[in-house]
Structures are given as C-alpha cells and as structure tokens.
Amino acid sequence: MELKNVFSTIVNNDLLHARWLNTLSLMENTGARKISASEDTTTVTYIILKHAAEEHRHAFYLKKQIEKIEGVSLPTYAPEYLLAASHSKRYLNQLDIDVCRYLKDKLALTGNELRFAAYLLVTYAIEVRADELYPVYQEVLTEAGSKVNVKSIILEEEGHLEEMINQLQGFSSDWQVHADKAVAIETHLFERWVEAVDHEISK
Q1: Rounded to an integer, what distance in angstroms lies between the CA atom of residue 82 and that of residue 86?
Q2: CA 89 to CA 2: how far, in whole Å?
Q3: Which pLDDT score is estimated for 1?
Q4: Residue span of the structural domain in which 100 resides
Q5: Which of 62, 86, 147, 168 could form a disulfide with 68 if both were Cys (CB 3.0 to 4.6 A apart)?
C-alpha cells in the first residue's frame, strides 16, 4: 500500500492522528530504552548517550504534538490510545530478537559484543526507516495544513544515520552486508506493521 495514502487517512481524522502520534512516541521511547539497555556501564560512548537522549526527546516531542489536536487526550501508551497496539509494541522487540539471532548464527557473538552489534544494526535499520517515514508524514502534514510538524525529528534522524554508519565502519569491514540483512529483516516487520495500521484505520 502507498504510505502517503495511509498517512492521509490518519491526518484527516483527529482521533486517528492523535493515536498515531502516540504510537510514534511509544516506538521512539522503546528505541531509546533499548539503546540504554545495550549500554556497557564502562565503555558507553558520547554518541550512544546522545542518541538515547535524542530518541527520548523525540518520544516527548511527539507526545507534546498531541496537544495541537483539540478535544483529544491520550495520557498513556495503553492499547486503546495506540494504532495497531500489539504490532506497534512488538515491532522493535522482534527486530532486536531477529537481528540477535542473525548475529549469533553469522558471527557467533555473545554477551556485550552481541548487545553492541545488535544496537548498531537495529538502530541503523530504524534510522533508514525513519529517513523514509518522517519526510512522507511531514509532506502529508504540510499538504493538510496541520499544526503538527516533525521537521526537527527529520533533521536529527538524518544525523543519526550518519553516526550509525560511522560506528558500523569501525565495527566490521563487512558492515554493509550485515546492515543490509538488518534492513531486510526490518522491512518485513515494517510492512506487517503498516498493514496492521491500515487495517485498523480502515474499519
């Protein structure tokens, strides 16, 4: 399905739009928590701390955008306040599981090495996705004359992708092979998630 069409349906319905923003906030928050969980207490770097902080800020910013939609209150990430709640909550966790399984099988990584490599590949795949998703969403927002905007997130996500590539280059000379595999895994999960969202908003 065309991503822009899905976003147009969402943006043109205030309640759906608010739930969509809440869903994006949930996913940004999940990503931030996963980055923090992957940190080594001794060797955590400036880039990792920066990235976790910015993802948390994105979660807050998206939550704050809901206030621009009048007459809607979504206080928590409870399922009734989200779109495709079960898929949305499972999406990043499943990506993490599948990438870890790949790294164990392909590179025999364990422990801290596995956690760090998974952080690199999962985050890279998510940043590639963010660089596609947010600009299309912003295009729909602009066309609809919405008060909501995600321009600041777009700028930061572009920087994140560059940072992830730099880290991956230091991780492995074959980083692109592993990164492409992570992207392929993410693409499958993303398509299933969008299908679930589309199904819910079409009811």
Answers
A1: 9
A2: 23
A3: 61
A4: 3-201
A5: 147
